[in-house]
From TrEMBL:
Species this protein is from: Variovorax paradoxus B4
Required cofactor names: [4Fe-4S] cluster
InterPro entries named in the record: Asp_de-COase-like_dom_sf, MoPterin_dinucl-bd_dom, Mopterin_OxRdtase, Mopterin_OxRdtase_4Fe-4S_dom
Upper classification of the organism: Bacteria, Pseudomonadati, Pseudomonadota, Betaproteobacteria, Burkholderiales
Pfam families linked: Molybdop_Fe4S4, Molybdopterin, Molydop_binding
Localization of this protein: Cell envelope
One GO term describing the cellular component: cell envelope
Protein name: Putative molybdopterin oxidoreductase
Length: 981
């Protein structure tokens, strides 16, 4: 019995729930953010079937172990959101896009319309169909659909989220933070978190940090803002946005100058000792190599291990592997040497030392705002913790060249970084600098450092070539490669013979060569401009492009409705698939109502984005716990249906019939290679095989009986050093995670980047960039990391706009998905601009007062709050809480619309660029195309007396869509426990 002020909990959250006669409990996987925790959903029978009554964490799930956050427990209110779309909708004839005027139609009519329209496009010019998806978890399916259709115009959300983090680290160490790897806080002694908001890897990170701090670990946060994780750090080091790369370069300067580096690690496991050609020739800046064909490139030609080193013991050149790592050989990390043919060379580490020589802490202080002495102290703390507090684990392992290591070396300094580094136009090189910093400390896949998660590490460069042959875009023909991938050199770019982009978003072109996730933020702008061509149909899934998912929101809304001289829309047909009445739904020609995560099958697959743990691969699923609302259909089912109707080869039998009855059947039976499918667990006809085996018709049932998750624990001998661990490399190849079993040498120096630079310099044969982009490629494709100011600053009057403006997702909300959630709205119903008191007072703005925030691109009016938890040169707010009036079925005049606001109105998706056809170029990282969300500069001023006390700009109120769920009041009454009338 509950006792007032008792220390005893009301109930034990880890106790197994006890179903009653009218209740049941089902397990599935949460999707209130991208963390993908295991949950238990408590159901009670209602008037129309089972209804969700309660959601808690699943203590038997390996990821969150029963921990659940506010978002996860509020999934019940997403299920009954008044904004739920329940039937397909067609824009009324004669109505304008954006007006939100629709008529209900049947699914059969929707499928007929799409099949007819898409069939004509595919039979004539497949690239005129574009499929761009938001924060989905099934890119293996959506990418396959685009490839089978024959269009290169496909991308997911990563280009405007964190592709710099993924690409910058994968091109350097073979893996990345987030799903692909992370900090080993179980064995770390120092944890440094940089540019991470409180929602990234939320519950597992909270669990890990709590355990780490209780064990006496030291936690340092480097961030312009002290919120979320940073609030519990032992030390907060404020930094100016977009300057993290300068800090990393200064830290490298100090570590190398102080000799606080892991020499043995660098010599054996990185390309630090490999010799770089210094002569002015077509191979300048590339690695020297052994021309002996027996030591040449591996079968795919992309990852040769035939480089050279200089042996200090014998004073001669040797092959880097295996002679360069043999006992008795001491590869040089520094110096300048001459090969037998007279070629001048130097180890790449010497070039790194030269690069950071001028990057002193005083240099970085002027850029970052961090005191030079603090930078020195931080470098010393990192280096001494990694090297002088090191320890060894009694775990023997054998490396890729057969050397047996009796123990595993720990380097107990762990890092974590995310979008704060990535979402800048200098983010790729910044992330590279961080990866190199981690590498010189020897922390890569070492106990206490950064650890990979299967199926990573990948090769450097990963063996996934993006589609790049314009001649293969043929009617009714699949592409010969996936639309997305990892280019290794200019010959793999997706460009036409004249050098122009193949893709509508200009991904994999000379503008953004390594754009591994595409440029979703430029699709609408380029399509409306017809640059490089007009498209016919744009299908958007789960991306609010008319609001928080677009830079320059107001202009994008206008472009979605823009017409040509014939009165036709510049984008003729716009299809939006969403579960809710978002701002973008109002602009659709056709609306497809998606299900929620509690109503559908999903897979978090090893072919895509699994939830693996450090000790082995983990994949998971979602299984419907309630039936779909109204006529909602999972988008996955929509794609399977369309693929079957359009007779895609991968989805039909040789006779032309359907190969799969639906998405669950597709997941079980689709095999990209024999024995390899979307799910690893319970394979084989009888479900007794794991990781690899033929399809099991009862695989979904097996997952349902096992908490919707499969976990495989690898032997301890495969837990660490997986870039070079022979046992792991062979194992990963056998299980289909890797095409080859050769080692993954860390790329402190990137010859991939240098190959693009040589083309820009006109020194190499083959493809050449347009003259207008030569200097751009030459500058930013530096094989060594470096810091440069965000590109937007070159076209900004920094005196007129002195402040950096950034956004963060709040811990209680994830994008715009949750800011319409009835429970979570009680935490955040609107947002403020958070400003340091000194900065706000200098501008004459009171705490809680209304102010104007202006950039060169636009202005917003909002409320301001004082906060000493923000560095004085930065202003910030929560992202996506502000809404257009009437969107998401919020009541007219709701706080989200009248008090909430978006910083997106202050950002441009393009910047001036002399020499390009339009005189403009994407406001993105020049290497990867990552959107420069955090580069905008602003000034603030007080609102004038008498101005409306509401945010600006304001939108015309959206009408309710036909069939929208509504009924918020009765929902709240029901879940308060009262009797439904």
């Amino acid at each position: 019995m509950f006792s007032f002020l008792s220390r005893e909990p009301v109930h034990d959250p880890l106790d197994a729930p006890t179903p009653t006669a009218d209740t049941q409990v089902k397990t599935t996987t949460c999707y209130m953010c991208a963390c993908r925790c295991g949950i238990r959903v408590h159901l009670r029978e209602g008037e129309h079937g089972p209804e969700v009554r309660y959601i808690d964490g699943n203590p038997e799930h390996p990821l969150n172990k029963g921990v659940i956050c506010a978002k996860g427990s509020s999934g019940i209110m997403k299920q009954v959101s008044p904004a739920r779309l329940t039937q397909p909708l067609l824009r009324k004839a004669g109505s304008e896009r954006g007006a939100g005027e629709f008529e209900p139609i049947s699914w059969e009519r929707a499928f007929d319309m799409l099949a007819e329209r898409l069939g004509k496009i595919r039979a004539t010019d497949p690239k005129k169909f574009a499929l761009f998806t938001g924060r989905d978890q099934m890119q293996a399916l959506t990418g396959l659909f685009a490839r089978q259709f024959g269009t290169p115009n496909y991308a997911a959300h990563g280009g405007f989220c964190s592709v710099n983090m993924a690409a910058g680290m994968i091109y350097t160490i073979g893996g990345s933070f987030w799903e692909f790897g992370g900090p080993d806080l179980d064995r770390a002694k120092l944890f440094v978190m940089i540019g991470t908001a409180e929602d990234h890897h939320s519950n597992p990170m909270k669990i890990a940090i709590s355990k780490f701090k209780r064990a006496g670990g030291r936690f340092i946060s480097i961030n312009p803002v002290r919120t979320g994780y940073s609030a519990i750090a032992d030390e907060w080091i404020p930094i100016k946005p977009g300057t993290d790369g300068a800090l990393f370069m200064a830290l490298l300067h100090e570590l190398i100058a102080s000799d606080l580096i892991d020499h043995a690690f660098l010599k054996r496991f990185t390309n630090a000792p490999q010799l770089v050609v210094l002569d002015d020739c077509e191979r300048q800046g590339l690695f020297a190599f052994d021309p002996d064909p027996t030591r040449g490139p591996p079968g795919d030609g992309r990852n040769p291990h035939n480089k050279l080193v200089w042996d200090l013991e014998q004073g001669s050149v040797k092959n880097a592997y295996p002679e360069g790592i043999a006992d008795g050989c001491d590869p040089a990390l520094e110096g300048h040497y001459t090969l037998a043919d007279g070629t001048r060379v130097a180890p790449s580490f010497q070039l790194l030392r030269d690069r950071v020589a001028s990057c002193t802490p005083e240099w970085a202080e002027a850029i970052t705002g961090i005191d030079a002495q603090r930078i020195r102290k931080l470098a010393r703390e990192m280096g001494e913790t990694a090297l002088k507090q090191a320890f060894e684990l009694p775990i023997a392992w054998t490396d890729a060249w057969g050397k047996k290591h009796p123990t595993t070396q720990a380097r107990p300094v762990a890092f974590h970084a995310m979008r704060g580094l990535a979402a800048h136009s200098n983010g790729f090189q910044t992330v590279r600098a961080l990866a190199v910093l981690m590498s010189v400390l020897g922390t890569i896949d070492a106990p206490g450092g950064f650890r990979h998660k299967a199926p990573y590490p990948r090769h450097i460069v990963p063996n996934y070539r993006a589609f790049n042959d314009p001649g293969m875009i043929q009617p009714n023909t699949p592409l010969n490669a996936a639309p997305l991938g990892f280019p290794a050199n200019p010959e793999e770019l997706a460009i036409n013979p004249d050098g122009s982009p193949i893709r509508i978003d200009h991904a994999f072109s000379w503008e953004h060569p390594l754009s591994a996730h595409g440029l979703m933020h430029n699709v609408i702008t380029n399509a409306v401009k017809g640059d490089p061509y007009r498209i016919d149909t744009l299908l958007i899934f789960m991306a609010n492009m008319a609001w928080n998912s677009s830079m320059n929101t107001m202009a994008v809304r206008e472009m979605l409705n823009r017409k040509d001289e014939k009165g036709e829309h510049m984008i003729p047909f716009l299809v939006v698939c969403d579960a809710f009445q978002s701002e973008t739904v109002a602009f659709a020609d056709l609306v497809l109502p998606d299900t929620t995560y509690l109503e559908r099958h999903d897979v978090m697959s090893m072919l895509d984005r699994p939830i693996s743990e450090f000790d082995g691969p983990v994949d998971s699923v979602r299984i419907p716990v309630v039936p779909p609302t109204g006529q909602c259909k999972p988008f996955q089912e929509v794609l399977i249906e369309l693929a079957s109707r359009l007779k895609f080869a991968a989805f039909t039998t040789p006779e032309g019939g359907r190969k799969f009855t639906g998405y669950p059947d597709f997941v079980v039976n689709f095999q990209p290679q024999p024995g390899i499918g979307f799910l690893m667990g319970w394979r084989g006809k009888d479900g007794t095989e794991h990781l690899r085996g033929e399809p099991n018709p009862k695989q979904w049932e097996a997952y349902a009986q096992n908490n919707c998750v499969f976990q495989y624990h690898m032997p301890e001998t495969m837990h660490y050093m997986r870039n070079w661990n022979r046992e792991y490399l062979d194992f990963a190849k056998d299980k289909g995670w890797r095409q080859r079993n050769d080692p993954v040498q860390l790329a402190l120096y990137s010859d991939t980047l240098q190959s693009f630079r040589l083309a820009a310099q006109g020194k190499s044969p083959g493809r050449q960039p347009p003259d207008a982009l030569r200097e751009r490629i030459d500058t930013y494709f530096d094989p060594l990391p470096f810091w440069y100011p965000p590109l937007e600053e070159a076209s900004t009057d920094l005196d007129a706009y002195p402040l950096n403006a950034i956004t963060q997702r709040p811990m209680a909300m994830y994008h715009s998905w949750d800011s319409q959630n009835a429970w979570l709205r009680q935490i955040h119903s609107h947002n403020y601009l958070h400003v340091n008191p000194l900065t706000a007072q200098a501008a004459g703005i009171a705490d809680g007062g209304w102010c104007w925030v202006e950039s060169q691109w636009g202005q917003v009016r909002c409320m301001l709050r004082y906060s000493e938890a923000v560095e004085p040169g930065t202003v910030w707010t929560w992202n996506a809480i502000g809404k257009a009036d009437g969107a998401w079925q919020l009541a007219p005049g709701a706080d989200e619309a009248r008090k909430g606001f978006l910083l997106n109105h202050l950002i441009s998706e393009e910047l001036p660029c002399a020499g390009t056809a339009s005189g403009r170029i994407s406001n993105s990282d020049p290497v990867t195309g990552q959107a420069g969300w955090y580069d905008v500069r602003v000034h603030i001023r007080p609102a004038e007396p008498g101005e409306p006390e509401e945010s600006f700009p304001q939108m015309a109120s959206m009408p309710s869509a036909p069939g929208v769920l509504g009924k918020a009041a009765s929902v709240l009454t029901y879940f308060a426990g009262r009797v439904k009338k």
